[in-house]
Specification:
Layout lengths: L2 E8 L2 E7 L4 H5 L6 H9 L3 H16 L7 E3 L5 E3 L4 E7 L2 E7 L3 E7 L3 H4 L1 H4 L12 H22 L6 H4 E3 L8 E8 L2 E12 L2 E13 L4
Antiparallel strand pairs: 1-2, 2-6, 3-4, 5-6, 7-11, 8-9, 9-10, 10-11
Length: about 220
Amino acid sequence: MPLFKTIHHNPNTQILIWKITESFSELFEQVILNDSNRIRLDTMKSEMHQRAFLSVRKLLQIAGFTDFDLHYDVFGKPHLNGDKHISITHSHEFSAIIISDETVGIDIELQREKIMRIADKFCKSEFQFLDSDNKAEYIQKLTVIWGAKEAIFKIRNEKGISFKNHIFVNQFSLNVKQNNAKLDFNNWVVDFNIHFEEIENFTLVYAFQGETNRKLTL
């Protein structure tokens, strides 16, 4: 299908979302890949993964870029040529990119009951404001928390970061659609502004990096 949704967060930041309904061949015919990404595509065993990969290139083209403007560093983090920052995500039938003048990360997740079983793997301080008795809200909030931590990790991309022990999401309301979080790692504390919204039965979360402070050591 065509572009599913565009979010203009501010004049310098846009989020583009694609719902993947096309076949592999339909998407492949509509994009141009650089040599390294053509090889990368050929190594993917899952057709769903291949279609998501190609749909991201469609989003790039809509945003005014091509696959030739995109490259990955040694840690697998995507970068655009020039001054713009980019982050990429996909889950099942949705893919999304965020392009901004600011340092950003993005994640999209399907809301599933499974997340309740693994909550203690990525939550710690957050349990203080979560209500497990309200199942629907519990799943929604856990999905926001996971998405926020994933988006932050994509920004920092540092070996050794633990979602549970180093990234902390503040209490939030599902109605407000924004929140704050921090990364406390390697003697640095980094603040993040978090935004989220629901898209069908998925949760889209994106993060902007804020102030960074070195921790005082005695």
